[in-house]
Amino acid sequence: MSAGRNAVGMAALMVGHCAGMIDLVALPVWVGTLVSKYGFDPQRAGGLATLFLISGVMASAIFAPRFNRLPVRAVAATGFALAGLSFLGVSLLQAYLPIAILHVAAGLSVGAALSVTHGNIGRSASPHQLFAAAGLCLGVFGIVILGAAPPIVDQFGGAVLFRIFAATMAVGALISAMAFPDFRKGDASARAAAGPMPGSVWFGIVGVSAMALVQSTVFSFVERRIRLDHDLHAHFRLRSSVAAGSDRSVRGCDARHADGRRGPRASPWRHARHDVRLSHAGRCGHRRGSLRHLRLLPFARDGRAAGNNLRNQQ
Predict the structure, then answer these.
(1) 194 lies in a domain?
(2) For residues 225 and 66, which has the higher predicted lDDT (pLDDT)?
(3) Which residues have a Cβ under 8 Å from the Cβ of 194 and sit 6 or more positions away?
(4) 167: CATH
(5) Quick one: pLDDT band at residue 147, thresholds 50, 70, 90?
(6) Quick check: 280 pLDDT over 80?
(7) Domain range for 46
(8) Domain-embedded: residue 32
(9) How many separate domains does the chain show?
(10) Would you state the pLDDT for residue 107?
(11) Of 79, 189, 192, 259, which is the most buried if we count CB atoms within 10 A?
């Protein structure tokens, strides 16, 4: 594969990663919109996001083991296209059951597309560097989503959020149909020589699963908890959400450089400590909180002051 085609293919994988991992950056706006604009209670709204995530896991369990036998470009393009149609359908509905069914359909479609996307990243010449670059793209995409979506939803209604999701999937489908690579070519001998998956890999699977569980359960409600528990003005809630979302999404690039110095076992412990400091920064203050994440505290303090001033003026 020529260098130009290889670069285009890697760019297509980055676009696919951003489209397939949209839940990682959009969950706060997603659940918050279902509660505030669709009138669902937090349990039902969180249940819809859970249906999407579980469906994605189920699709991955089906498609990932068959990666070597799948037409990867067709699966990616079709998966993103069906997910886009599902989100477009959600934007046209208000009843819970049809929306739930479409969330399942979107999750299955995204899970299939993301399985072949990540499988191709793993087969690339530099999988860690490519995944780090994809993580950086996702971080930038997260800043755009978390920064632009809330005011748009406030102005035009909750349906526009799912149209944004549908447009994102449409872009992923179009790019995948035109430029999705197949890094499996020329790797038949390596596939034939590959043995069973080492048992140690399961520790990584369990760790990633636990990380995803914590991320989805906490990050889904961060926007509502910031608003209700801390009573922040919308401007400062937006800035805090963007900071938290970009920090979590760009973490892969930081891990890529750290792993080169400390080895793969150091990174999970370092990032677990990083998350604990972030979650307690607001309570522990400058002495015990992580200085890197105390940048969020001025948003909280200024937001409370702005909220108090607005209430005093009313």
Answers:
(1) no
(2) 66
(3) none
(4) 1.20.1250.20
(5) confident
(6) no
(7) 1-184
(8) yes
(9) 2
(10) 96
(11) 79
